[in-house]
Amino acid sequence: MSRAPHGKPSAHRSAAPGSTHRPLAASRTAIHDPRWPRISAALSNLRDRGRHAVRIVDSDCGAGSLLLHALHHARMLGFTAIEGRGIDGSPALIGHARAAAARQPDPAIGVTFECADMLAALRDEADLPADILLCQETGPKSGRPDLRDAVFAAGDRVIDDAANDGVAP
């Protein structure tokens, strides 16, 4: 544990001396997301099955913190070819996501963030579904059966806020 300027122990951990690795700033946000345990379990399951490559799409990525953390977690688990795609309707949030990705380069991780219509982007994803697709609400409360159908066509494993992730209604 490091010491804060006032001499008291600090919970902040810094990188090892001489290391260029910086902890992900968004990690705290990501691990408190209710989907994180299922994302981590899905990645572990893929590795346990001998997979070395993974593709993750976040259909409502915001500033990208959850997607970026999932991609770096996949790298930590030993994946050697990792692809991520973040989709959001807000140009400002996509700009923040791109900036965050640029601060965390890794040659094994390819990530793109784009401002796009979610339904059109998900329909494009259905041609080659992602291993893991992250989204917000896909259940009956979403009120958009066309969006719900596109979500389940775009990913082999869908992880949403509801308890029914991965199972088409």
Please characterize this protein's 3D structure.
There is one protein chain. The strands form two sheets. A five-stranded parallel sheet has the order 5-4-3-6-7, sandwiched between helices. The relative contact order is 0.15. The chain is of the alpha/beta class. It has a single domain, classed as Vaccinia Virus protein VP39 (Rossmann fold, 3-Layer(aba) Sandwich), CATH 3.40.50. Helix 5 runs parallel beside helix 6. The chain has helices at 27-31, 36-48, 65-77, 91-102, 118-125, 145-154, and strands spanning 2-3, 9-10, 53-58, 81-88, 109-115, 130-134, 155-159.
Brief description of this entry?
By secondary structure, the protein is α/β, with parallel strands linked by helices. It has helices at 27-31, 36-48, 65-77, 91-102, 118-125, 145-154, and strands at 2-3, 9-10, 53-58, 81-88, 109-115, 130-134, 155-159.
What's the structural blueprint in terms of helices and strands?
Layout (H helix, E strand, L loop, with lengths): L1 E2 L5 E2 L16 H5 L4 H13 L4 E6 L6 H13 L3 E8 L2 H12 L6 E7 L2 H8 L4 E5 L10 H10 E5 L10
Parallel strand pairs: 3-4, 3-6, 4-5, 6-7
Antiparallel strand pairs: 1-2
